[in-house]
Amino acid sequence: MNQEEPKQEQNKPKPITKNSTKKPHGNYLMWVVLAAVISFLVFLTFVVVRNVQPQTATQPSLQFQPVEQLTLGMISSGFNLYPQNSSIENDIILNRQIFEGLVRFEDRTTVVPLLAESWSNPDTSTWVFKLKPNIAFHSGNILTADDVVYSVEQFKKYHGEDATYISTIESVEATDPQTVTIKTTAPDPTLLSKLTLVYIIDSEYSGDNPALAGTGPYLTDSIPTEETVRLTAFDNYHNGPVGGVQTLTITAIPTEEEELRSALEQHQFDYISTLSGLTNVGIDPNQYGYETIVRESISVNYLGLNQAKDGPLQNESVRRAIYLGIDVDELLDAYDKTGTPASQPVTVDIPGFNPLIERPAHNPEEAKELLVEAGYADGLDLELTYFVTARLAAENIKTQLEELGINVTLDEHDSGQTIGPKVFASGEVDMFFSGYLPDINDAVDTLSFMFVDSPNYSNQSIADQINQSSTIFSNQRLELLQSIADQLMKDVAVVPLYVSDVELLGYNDSDYVYEIDANGTAFEGIHYAEFYKKQATE
Questions:
Q1: How confident is the model over 443-476, as pLDDT tens digits?
Q2: Res 280: pLDDT
Q3: CA distance linking residue 466 with residue 454, whole number of Å
Q4: Domain residues for 123?
Q5: DSSP conformation letters of 7-54
Q6: What gap in Å lies between CA 311 and CA 445, rounded to an integer?
Q7: Distance (Å, rounded) from C-alpha 353 to C-alpha 438?
């Protein structure tokens, strides 16, 4: 698929003379309105993105200034440099500043060039990327197609050949120094999204600091310590001088209460990654001038229902009763969380979201009737499996379901090594509380994880449709994904609960302007090279 579509010829409207007695033609009005809208949008874009000149001597305007120093406080410590396998927030934030892929997300939904300047598809299984010329690694070496080939091989080495992002890649070839050809085993319409997370590293660098093998807007002169890493703007960055944060420090917050209070009093952190590490020790960060910042994520928390196991959950009426019997607003209050009730496994920002699916209203009376119709007038017993951090949510779900006559036994785990295999491998659970954040900003990621080769769900027709959606490029793909979502929700294959919000702490957050992209919902989704300080000028 070519990145740029051919332009269509437009019919030019005939001018209307001043003395004409004819009413303007509809097309003409359309062009006039369109021109006005475009003019306004151009102006608005100029105001938001560029420095604005004062319109009058008394009216202030905004200028976006560099941020000389920004410090992020993280609840956990330790850092791993790419390409080591890690999904820890610290590592994601660090590596996204140092390393880059061929492409990146912009405005949460659009894939745009980054190290590649263009791409094309000679056929549906072939991708040809043209690299931007003269891109410098932090080591001083210049990016070539050989580095891209090497980077994919390194990804396989550290993540495995079946890793999601490269599982469909059959071959990667350096066609010439500035051209890379990637062939996939089958058409893969999500490949671009996957490649945003496959970073390109310097194949010729052999030093002790892996950070020098990146091309990103920030570099570090030394290997990160257990507690802190300090990044500085890269002078030779290929997208031009870094205009946002000049020095970015990522550090673990103190674990001792006295040290933590002192750090907050002195405002040692501009942002802190989560509230939980503070509230758990009885500290209210708001009293130190920090404000809570709420961002809607693309993660859906849900109640998984094991329909592959013999028992009451194989009955659709029972599953629907559970769905109708849970009041999400009450759940969020009990869990002390903020969020939006969900109607399906993905959010509105994800391609494949079906806007026609509505979440049914909470209706415990109808839920009780469904249980009677299903043969459970005297109640039934189910187990709910969850991770220890979701204890309040699990307890509230138990309370709500027991009001329907469903006796719930709580199965709490404090280790990912025990809950992971039980929920996603054994097929032994009844219900489980979980959440999913798609890696590649596409519904097929979520649907594949939840409903293909799952120990908790078995429907070959659904699995075949999901697999088919992974290999077609046409507009029918979106319709297919939306149809799959409709079928799943009519079958109550899962109980979507809420789109979770991410809560951060910021000191003087209103002084800054920044965006969060699809590859992250908090610190990890921010492009710090485009993180600016607002300044009013007369």
A1: 999 999 999 999 999 999 999 999 999 999 878 9
A2: 55
A3: 13
A4: 100-204
A5: PPP-PPPPPPPTT--SPPPHHHHHHHHHHHHHHHHHHHHHHHHS----
A6: 28
A7: 13
Q: Are 92 and 105 in contact (CB under 8 A)?
A: no
Query: How do 228-233 and 532-537 pair as beta strands?
Result: unpaired
Which of 459, 462, 453, 327 shows the shortest CA–CA distance to 400?
327
pTM equals 0.77
- Phi, psi at 495, each rounded to 5°: -105, 100
Contact (Cβ atoms closer than 8 angstroms) between residue 73 and residue 268: yes
Cβ–Cβ < 8 Å for 442, 194? no
Confidence band of 59 (pLDDT split at 50, 70, 90):
very low
Which CATH number does the domain housing residue 365 bear?
A: 3.10.105.10
Total domains present in the chain: 3
Region of residue 59 (left: phi > 0; alpha: psi -120 to 50; beta: else): beta
**209 part of a folded domain:** no
Residue 34 located in a structural domain: no
Question: The tokens of 236 are what?
Answer: 């030779």
CA torsion angle 31 37 39 44 (round to 10): -170
Name the phi and psi angles at 298, rounded to 5: -110, 25
pLDDT given for residue 298 in this prediction: 86
- Return d(Cα 407, Cα 394) in angstroms, integer: 13
143 pLDDT band, cuts 50/70/90, is very high
